[in-house]
Fold:
Amino acid sequence: MKDITRAIVGALSEDGSAIAFHQDADGILAAYFACRLLPASGIPRLIPVETENFDLADLSAYLSGTSNLLMLDINISSVESGVATLAHSLTGSLIVIDDHDQRPTDLPSASILIDPRSLPTGQDRELFPPSLFLFSLLREQGITTASDTYLAAVAAFGEGVFDRFRDWFLTVDRTVLDSARSLGWSINGYSRSSPSSDSIRDVIATLLTRTADLLLPLAVEAIQDSRAIKEVQAADARVSAEVNRLSDTVLRQAPIQTKSGVTAIICRVQSNYRVANLVASNSRSRIVSGVVAVEQKGEKGTWVELRRTRDLVEPNLLDVLLRMPSAWFIARGGHPMACGATVKSEATDKFSSALVDALARI
Ligand SMILES: [Mn+2]
Structure:
């Protein structure tokens, strides 16, 4: 573990290095914890990546000439060739922290792929998001503050894995955890058009780019009181209400007929918030045994989120996505029990009927 910390810190301390991270709770906070491992004077360039840009084509051009790149929570199973192109465009090496099964094959030899699940701290974990892994490296250094623990809880809630990591937060006050849940949820349920999507950028600015904040660890209260955080949390009540309302709609759908008799629900929802992921997870937690698929029309395509209840070991939902033609997708990836995709608008109908067929066979 100390070797990994040394490799990350060493790479990021070189001139011209950068961190690219998914612009959601896990990605933002993974970048935050990576920066916390560094001396405050040496924060590298920070590049938020939206889900729609997961093909990494733009990023390769933009990053050409960058020395070392740390890539966080950018699902490399969805962008296999894009990762290789990106890695080859660097003058230094690519370090990826990712807990997905698919591994790109044609990377330059200097690349480092870290799967936290394969390390001692990750043993027996099905999921180990980069944010929580980097928090564990920080904890190993013995320099975590109450704010770090609060932000790790934000990441765990935002990523939907808090229950699996509950033992990390046993000493945290109930009201602090409530606040963390609300912030994690509101970051991941961000709106496409409301002011809160600008607030997300402010949150990133607040958490990441102010060197002084990193140097002088923020008090939990200071984070909770910051204007950007308050604005994001103000969206939380609206997002939660929307998630509950849409989950009701999902659960009212008639399940499709499956070979094994397992419940499978496919539902298309509409919202001004980007909530397909939250609606899918929420509906999944409200059915006894089965599979939920939620589709939501977005600006650049249709977001699709697939979830399986914990009692089932099949179907492998990621395989369902990966068996479909790659030409249909802007991005796709995830885990066998929880995965997602952005489907090109023109391929949405073909995708939907292929999904019905695939789920009918389970
Ligand atoms: Mn993410």
Notes: Residues 191-197, 208-217 have pLDDT under 50 and may be disordered. The radius of gyration is 20 Å. DSSP finds 14 helices and ten strands in the chain. Residues 80 and 104 are 5 Å apart (CA to CA).
